[in-house]
Each structure stands twice: as structure tokens, then as C-alpha cells.
Specification:
The chain is of the alpha+beta class and about 230 residues long. The chain has two domains: about 1-130, Ribosomal Protein L22, Chain A, CATH 3.90.470.20; about 130-230, Ribosomal Protein L22, Chain A (Alpha-Beta Complex), CATH 3.90.470. The protein is built from six helices and twelve strands. Strands 8-12-11-10-9 form a five-stranded antiparallel β-sheet, covered by helices on one side. Strands 1-2-7-6 form a four-stranded antiparallel β-sheet, covered by helices on one side. A hairpin with a 2-residue loop joins β11 (about 210-220) and β12 (about 220-230). α2 packs across α4 (about 55-75). The relative contact order is 0.14.
């Protein structure tokens, strides 16, 4: 009911991948009433955290990613009332879904959140065999200037390096892998070698050992990557 009354028009772009993975993208420019979204989608504790955020852009991104995830859970028939569920972080900072209906209970889905500018992204994996990570990056030449900090000499994408999409895509893949691993920027992106073995599909290795697989695609003027690592 909530999704049909409020979120149906917002959550239009949903994509399916291997490992029973579903990813959704929410256009934050269309989510005008943030306070209404917070009341509908957030748990009591999430609402308290949201109200403590002062920066408007940060507030919008934080809320947007959680609304996107809960909309996706409703759309997939996993959740009925989103404020009975909470997005918390585990000891590695990875998001996890808690059911609050009786006592806090971890929902057996892996999930990942991301946001960039006007877009929020959420992904879930049902297989139970992989750790999931996802990222969205704007296509821009800016990351080329920082390439020495995150590129590896063995990186190979089927995109010309002169293309403005090359470095944002490379970053998005490595960021998605770091989220799957639960290591954030501490993983050291320049230690990760990303090789596109077939169109839009990559294997990512560290010190010669494959640690994750990933896919990427382009959404409007953004690169979106999703990665899976072994549990």
C-alpha cells in the first residue's frame, strides 16, 4: 500500500543480476517531501538519526538511500511496513537489515547502498552465498587527475582510457568491491587489479588472487557497478 500510494512513481528503475541480485535507483529530485519520506519509511531510531543531520545534502542522500532500499524490499514482497525494519551497520560498517517487529532480528539478505548527487541506489542479494557491494559514480574527467591513487598497472577495461567514462567506471567497480569486502577506502584501491574479461563483466584481484567479480553499466550520465565477494 505504501509503495503504491507514495513510492510507485519514484522507484521506476529496477535491474536484475546474477546471484539473485536486484538493484534499484531512485531519482532524489523527484522525492521532494523529505520529512514525509522520513515519517513513512524510517524506524523510530532512524528518524532520530535523520533529525540530527544538519547538512541538507547529506540528509537527502542518507534518507534517499534508505528509502530506495525499503522501497525495493516492498516491491520484491520482502517487507510490508518499512518502519518495522531498520538499516543498521555491522562491525565492518556494511549495511544490514533488522526486523523490529518482535526483537531485533537480522534479515537474511545481503544489501548495499550508494548515492551520488541526485541519485540514490540500493541493491539486495538473496542467494546467501555472496557479500554484496554497489556504487554509483558520475561520468566526469575529474577522477582521471586522481588515477595514480586508485589505478593499478594491470587494470584493463574495454573502454578507451581517453573516454570520460573510463576512470569513473574503474572507481565504481573498486568501490563496489571494497563495500562487499567491508573495508571501505582502507582496502587500498591501487592494490586492486580490475580486468574486464567480457563486456561489462570484471574480475578483481589483489596480489594476484581473485577476490571478487563485478558488473557495471551506465545509467544516464553515471557509471553503476555491483560486486560480489565470497562470504
Amino acid at each position: 500500500m505504501i509503495l503504491s500510494n507514495y513510492g510507485k512513481e519514484l522507484l521506476k528503475d529496477v535491474f536484475s543480476f546474477r546471484h539473485q541480485t536486484t538493484l534499484a535507483i531512485l531519482d532524489l529530485n523527484r522525492a521532494n517531501d523529505l520529512d514525509q519520506s522520513a515519517q513513512i519509511f524510517l524506524s523510530k531510531q532512524e528518524n532520530e538519526h535523520y533529525n540530527l543531520l544538519k547538512n541538507k545534502a547529506r540528509k537527502k542522500e542518507w534518507l534517499g538511500a534508505r528509502v530506495c532500499l525499503k522501497m525495493l524490499l516492498i516491491k520484491e514482497g520482502i517487507v510490508r511496513n518499512p518502519n518495522e525494519y531498520e538499516i543498521a551497520k555491522d562491525h565492518r560498517g556494511r549495511p544490514q537489515i533488522l526486523s523490529l517487529r518482535d526483537s531485533p532480528l537480522l534479515v537474511s539478505l545481503d544489501c548495499s547502498l550508494s548515492h551520488k548527487g541526485e541519485y540514490a541506489l540500493a541493491a539486495i542479494a538473496r542467494s546467501g552465498k555472496k557479500k554484496l557491494g554497489a556504487d554509483i559514480e558520475k561520468l566526469s574527467p575529474k577522477l582521471q587527475k586522481l588515477a595514480a591513487r586508485f589505478a593499478h598497472k594491470e587494470d584493463r577495461l574495454m573502454i578507451d582510457q581517453d573516454n570520460a567514462a573510463y576512470f569513473p567506471t574503474l572507481w565504481a567497480v573498486k568501490e563496489a568491491v571494497s563495500k562487499a569486502q567491508g573495508k571501505g577506502l582502507g582496502i587500498g584501491f591501487s592494490r586492486l587489479a580490475c580486468r574486464e574479461t567480457k563486456k561489462n563483466f570484471c574480475r578483481v584481484s589483489e596480489r594476484g588472487k581473485v577476490i571478487a567479480e563485478a558488473e557495471y553499466f551506465f545509467y544516464r550520465d553515471h557509471a553503476v557497478a555491483i560486486a560480489w565477494a565470497e562470504k
